[in-house]
Amino acid sequence: MSDTQQAPHYPFPAPSALDAPAEWAELRSGCPVAPITLASGDQALLLTRYDDVKQLLSDPRFTHHLVAEDAANITTNESGGVFGSGGGTNVKGDSHREWRKLIGKAFTAKRVSAMQPGIEAEAGRLVDEMLKQGSSADLTGALGFPLPVWVICELLGVPESDRDKFAYWSDTLLSLTKYTQEEVDAAQAEFAAYMSAHVAAKREEPGDDLISELISLVGALDGRVTEEVMLMTAKGLLVAGHETTANMIGKMVAMLLADRTRWERLVADRTLIRTAVEECLRYDANFGFGIPRYISEDVKVADTTLPKGTTVVCSLSAANRDESAFEGAAGMDLTRSPNPHLIFGAGPYACLGQSLARTELQTVLKVLLDRLPTLELAVPADELKRREGLIVGGLQQVPVRW
C-alpha cells in the first residue's frame, strides 16, 4: 500500500443492520491480513479468515490488553476502554490464565443450570409486561436489555434497582466514539466508587453470589490477586455479562423474523432451539469491533510474518462467514451441527460466561416461541438501525408486533 493510499477506516459500514460489509468477503479472498485505520487514527491489521482468527485467538502469548507503549489505541478516548488501561488487570501471562481458571469455577454448569428456572420465570414476567402494554413493543427495551441485567445482578448480588446506572457505565467502557473523554472518566469514577462500596458491603455480609466468591480469592496466586484485580474483574463481568447478551437477544429475534419462515419452523419444532441459537451466533454480522491482540513477539499468520509490536484485530463475524470453514456460510441453516463458530473466542481467553449466555438465549427464545408464536417485525428488516459508536454491535430497537 502506498503512502497516498490510507488504510480503510474500521469498523466498515454495513449495507443494513443485519447484513455483512462487502469488505469481509473481499479481504478473506484477496487480503487476509489487511491494514486498517482505527477510530483513534492508529493503524492495525485485520484478520478475516477462520483459520487465521482461530490461530491467533488460541495463542496464549497474546492478549487483548493493549497496554504496551507501541500498542494501537482502539478508541478515541485515552483510557482505551475495555481493551486499554481502563479495562485491564495487572495479572498477566500464566497468572492471568490461573486467575481465569479460578473465576471460571464460578461459572460452573451447576450454577448456570440452577439459574435457568429463574431466567425463564423472569423472561415470562417481562413478556407479561409486554402483553399488558398492547400488541406491539420494542423487543430490545422490553426484554433484550432487562433480562440479562436481571441475570447479572442475580449472579453478582447487585441490586437490580441500579440497572440503569450499569447500562450507562457499560456504554462508556465500551465506547469507540460515542462519549467524550470527560464523560468516560466521570462514569468510570462513579462505577469504581459504586463497585468499591458494593464489595465493602459484601465483605461485611457475604452471600451466595459471585462478588462474595471473588472477595474470598483476594490474596490468591501468591498475593498477585489484589483488591484492584478483584474489583476490575467484578466490573468486567458486570459489563460483559449483560451488554453482549442484551444486544444478542435483539439481533437473534430480528434475524429469525427477517425471514419469517425461520420463526415458523421453530414454532413447529422446539428441538431446533439449541442449533438455531448457535446459528444466530455464527451468522451475526453485527457483533461489533472484534477482538484485538497485541503481538508481543514475531508470529506467522497466513504466510505473513506479523512483527512484534503489531496490533491485530480478529473479526470473529468475518471468520464465521468463511466458506472454507462453514458450508453455505452466507446463508442461515437452523440445523447446522456441528457449528464451531468463534463468537465466544477460542483458546485460553475464550469467553468465561458463554454457558450462561447460551442458557439465556435458548431460554428467552423458548419463552417467546411459547408465548408469542405470532411474533413478527413491525418494520421491514432493512429499516432496523445499528447502535453506533460502541465496541459491541447491537440494534437500537427491534419493533415487533403479535
TrEMBL record:
One of its GO terms (molecular function) is heme binding. This is Cytochrome P450. The keyword Signal does not apply. The lineage of its organism: Bacteria, Bacillati, Actinomycetota, Actinomycetes, Streptosporangiales. Belongs to the cytochrome P450 family. Keywords: Heme, Iron, Metal-binding, Monooxygenase, Oxidoreductase. The keyword ATP-binding does not apply. It comes from Nonomuraea zeae. Pfam families: p450. Its cofactor is heme.
